Amino acid sequence: MRWFLFCYWYEPDAPSDPVGLVRLWTLARHLVERGDRVTVLPPRYRSSLLQRGFSTAPIPLIPWPVLRPISYAVLSCVVALVQAFRSKPEVVYYRWMDSPHPLLFARLVGAQCVCEVNGEPVPDWSEADRTLKRRLKHWLASFALSRCDRVVVLTEGLRDLVVRRYQVAPERVAVLPSGTDTELFSPQDSAACRRRIGLGLDHDYIGFVGSFYRYQGLQCLLEAMAIIRRSVPSVHLLLVGDGEAAPELKQQADRLVLNSCITWAGRIAYQEVPTWIGAMTLCVAPFRGDRGETSPVKIFDYLGCGKPVIASAIPSVSATFGQEAGVALVPPDDPEALAQAVLALLNDPDRQARMAAIGRHFVEQRFSWAHLTNRLREWLATEQALTHHAHPRVL
């Protein structure tokens, strides 16, 4: 199959290399390994210039906030049309964005259009969307999702949402969760990892990797850390990432007198993430209870590295993970429960080892990118997908 992948992503605090594109890079690479031809049309970030193994057509952006997404929509369509003259795509695959231009392009070139929805199109927890803007985004989502040939969602909750809220026919929706690169994210010797990145060898490290957004629940993690330190003063917190909540988190750590036991690693290159996870004793994903639907890549990466995990029992996490996956679930927004779960695990090395082995096996069998890519290709290669569109006309 010949694929065009559209993927607009913008992080105001990381304009040079947003981590949100990693899933698309990985998908493209695995499709090529199976003999497909792939062209990715990403914004012109540093990461888009470094990709190898598939064709990339980086799209320059006008840097002003309003014109940035518009410039991507217009220029990516123009570049895609030029590319289509050379090699017409059979599948146009795009991660949900407010612009429906990938759908319009797919109709123009006669390709089937697949939209990936990796979060609520208009999040209820978003503080940035006011009434008029929210209504417009809902209309755009209804317009595009109901007309795409197929919709890929990351969780069962998202499947229910797009069917109920955006009138997508259930048979056109498939759940394809996040996964991990089990070759890159693999178990490593903790001591060797700590030496490599300059950490001490005589501490237990509670680790988090991700963007510092409020829905990640890091405020709760810091409160839990203050409780943990009363029982185990030598434990350290290893925070890998950065984001909009970083200043207030550092102020909170200062109030709780925690800065001496926290390593703020900042943003690191994606290829270095497994080393940092390898240095951790256990990993956490303390999502807030109002996080909404998510399929957290970080948990799959933690498990791929053979680490025991403690995560908030929000619906989308509980539906995927549990003890049989090497994950201990705790109530969200409860520092005491999180602290007690961490302390129990720190005091039980045998349980740590069991959870690590179970978690690694879990992702190898069900959530490796090789496995997920095969499922996607098989789904799209069905006779129904190749013979007709659910909506042959745009309007």
Number of domains: 2
- What's the overall average pLDDT, rounded? 89
Q: End-to-end span in angstroms?
A: 27 Å
Number of helices: 16
Q: List SSEs in N-to-C order.
A: EHEHEHEHEHEHEHEHEHEHEHEHEHHHH
CATH class of the largest domain: Alpha Beta
CATH topology of the largest domain: Rossmann fold
Describe the model.
It is a single chain. The chain has about 400 residues and is an alpha/beta fold. The chain folds into 2 domains: about 1-180 and about 370-385, Glycogen Phosphorylase B (Rossmann fold, 3-Layer(aba) Sandwich), CATH 3.40.50.2000; about 190-365, Glycogen Phosphorylase B (Rossmann fold, 3-Layer(aba) Sandwich). The chain is built from 16 helices and 13 strands. It has helices at about 20-35, 45-50, 65-85, 100-110, 130-145, 155-165, 190-195, 220-230, 245-255, 275-280, 295-305, 315-320, 335-345, 350-365, 370-380, 385, and strands at about 1-5, 35-40, 55, 90-95, 110-115, 150-155, 175, 205-210, 235-240, 260-265, 280-285, 310, 325-330. The protein has a 7-stranded parallel β-sheet, with helices on both faces. The protein has a 6-stranded parallel β-sheet with strand order 10-9-8-11-12-13, with helices on both faces. Strand 8, helix 8 and strand 9 (about 235-240) form a beta-alpha-beta unit. Helix 1 (about 20-35) crosses helix 15 (about 370-380), helix 3 (about 65-85) packs parallel to helix 4 and helix 8 packs across helix 13 (about 335-345). It is globular, with a radius of gyration of 21 Å.
